[in-house]
Amino acid sequence: MKNIVLINASPKINEQSVSKEFLEMAGSQIDSDLFSKTFIDVRKSFLTHNLTEDFQTLAKADVMIISFPLYYFCMPGMLTRFLVDYHNYYTASENIKNHVKVYAIVNCGFPEPEINLEAVRVIKSFSQHLNAEFRFGVLIGGGPMMVATKKAPFMKKSVQKLKSAFSSIAADIQHENSTTIDSICIGVDFPFSRRLYYFMGGKGWITLARKNGLKKKDLYKKPYRLNE
Ligand SMILES: Cc1cc2nc3c(=O)[nH]c(=O)nc-3n(C[C@H](O)[C@H](O)[C@H](O)COP(=O)(O)O)c2cc1C
């Protein structure tokens, strides 16, 4: 039986993770009778010092599906650390599977899914360093909104596209000699103006700042610059 390892790399621990929700959607499309599925949470792996055990799981993977949020137009630092450490483990180990397929699911706050492309390129490069085959990415724009409003009628088309993208991963896993597949981009179809979306997004940051004991003006501070 082939081993599928599904990796959630959202740094969130207590709040609901959008990346995790997408990963579970993707996992549910994979037939449990044909494949064994194991979930790894990168943040928990670091917090509970479970890295070696998780690396052993990864070393037995036939397929890796990595789901993460876009952070500053690339991947969260925690995922970079995890992949670099796994690469070191991989180069020091024998008995590692040879033909491994890798998929990326990247979601971001901005509505344009294409801005996730650079992060996907980094996963592709990581795959090459592991002698693994990067297959394709699912790039999702407006991820938090998609999850929060997934049952709303205006989101129907985007949710269908998501399901179809995840079933493409499930189908691709089953094929031995797969041809090249382009990454799949999924955005949100707004029932309102983009300007309102950005306004609401901006308000979200201010609410978060207040929760952390900061004021709106603190968001504009540049502590790394002298005399500011
Ligand atoms: C520190 C940080 C940096 C972020 N950087 C970006 C970014 O560059 N572009 C973007 O569109 N969204 C950005 N986001 C939004 C996240 O990608 C988005 O909220 C995502 O759905 C979070 O997924 P998660 O719930 O799995 O952590 C950022 C969020 C945080 C907290």
In summary, what is this structure?
Helices cover 43% and strands 17% of the residues. By secondary structure, it is an alpha/beta fold.
Largest sheet geometry: 6 strands, parallel
First and last CA, distance: 59 Å
Uncertain residue ranges: none
Q: What ligand species are in this complex?
A: flavin mononucleotide
- Give the spatial strand order of the biggest sheet: 2-1-3-4-5-6
CATH class placement of the largest domain: Alpha Beta
Share of helix, binned = 40-55%
Mean of residue pLDDT values = 93
Which structural class is indicated by helix and strand composition? alpha/beta
Beta-strand share of residues:
15-25%
The CATH superfamily label of the largest domain reads Flavodoxin domain
Number of domains: 2
Q: In CATH terms, what is the architecture of the largest domain?
A: 3-Layer(aba) Sandwich
Query: If you compute it from the alpha carbons, what radius of gyration comes out, rounded to the nearest whole angstrom?
Result: 19 Å
Structure explained in plain terms:
- The protein has 228 residues and is of the alpha/beta class.
- It has a six-stranded parallel beta sheet, with helices on both faces.
- The chain is 43% helix and 17% strand.
- Helix 1 links the parallel strand 1 (2-8) and strand 2.
- The termini are far apart.
- The chain has two domains: 2-191, Rossmann fold, CATH 3.40.50; 193-228, no CATH class.
- The chain is globular.
- It has helices at residues 18-28, 42-47, 51-59, 77-92, 117-129, 143-148, 156-174, 194-211; strands spanning 2-8, 35-41, 63-69, 101-107, 133-140, 184-186.
- The mean pLDDT is 93.
- It contains eight helices and six strands.
- Bound molecules: flavin mononucleotide.
- The site of flavin mononucleotide has 17 residues, from helix 1 and helix 6.
